[in-house]
Amino acid sequence: MTPRDQLDPEALTALRRDLEDNIEGDVRFERFFRGMHSTDASVYQIIPLGVVAPRSRDDVVRVVELCSKHGASITARGGGTSQAGQAIGPGLQLDFSRHMNRLLDIDIEGRTVRVEPGMVLDELNARLKPHGLQLPLDLSTSSRATIGGMIANNSAGTRSIVYGKTIDYVEELEVVLADATSVMMQVLDEDARHEKSKRDDLEGTC
Ligand SMILES: Cc1cc2nc3c(=O)[nH]c(=O)nc-3n(C[C@H](O)[C@H](O)[C@H](O)COP(=O)(O)OP(=O)(O)OC[C@H]3O[C@@H](n4cnc5c(N)ncnc54)[C@H](O)[C@@H]3O)c2cc1C
Description:
Number of domains: 3
Strand order of the largest sheet: 1-2-4-3
Number of strands: 8
CATH architecture of the largest domain: 2-Layer Sandwich
Order of helices and strands: HEHEHEEEEHHHEEHH
Helix content: 25-40%
Number of helices: 8
CATH topology of the largest domain: Uridine Diphospho-n-acetylenolpyruvylglucosamine Reductase, domain 2
CATH class of the largest domain: Alpha Beta
Bound molecules: flavin-adenine dinucleotide
Shape: globular
Radius of gyration: 18 Å
CATH superfamily of the largest domain: Uridine Diphospho-n-acetylenolpyruvylglucosamine Reductase, domain 2
């Protein structure tokens, strides 16, 4: 179903019930929670239909399936520190900062980490410091900014001329697409990209 900005009361109740029955994370449709998630660091305010804080990749897949079934749009949210309104929307707010904020793996030799998208930059760097490593992106919101939000914004800081921007540090992403398929995405050379673009699924076309 094509996402709509507003749902009629019956559809909204059905969406909420389906989410509550199928999601392990938090499902909050109370006015207070919707109000709390209606702003970011911009001048805008948009009250969402509801807020879900997923606990796992499977939760995210189910949210996408259920929002698609009921015709609700989704806006992902990390720390909500964006300044142009891109972290708010009229559909469902998918808040990664509450539960999906763990460091999953550190490979000291390979100088790579695997994290959930809601991990905060300062927390990641605190975990890396004992190993003499850091992610050298110095956003002034580093105590709140999450890796997911940084990737979506391609965040940078005053040292970006020397150290680069977020995109320069991303090797692989697990992405849940709009049709609820979950795909691994890596940097591709031109030939591999061309091959993949021949696929007629959503991964090939996006
Ligand atoms: C005072 C101030 C100073 C700032 N300084 C800087 C700076 O120096 N450099 C800089 O680059 N930016 C800066 N910013 C902007 C912002 O803080 C950063 O870009 C930050 O990285 C955003 O992270 P976030 O977790 O708050 O993302 P959010 O604001 O929550 O989200 C940002 C975008 O990412 C999307 N998103 C979030 N999580 C996911 C996910 N899991 N999957 C898919 N999409 C997702 C959201 O939908 C949104 O479009 C500043 C902002 C403020 C208010």
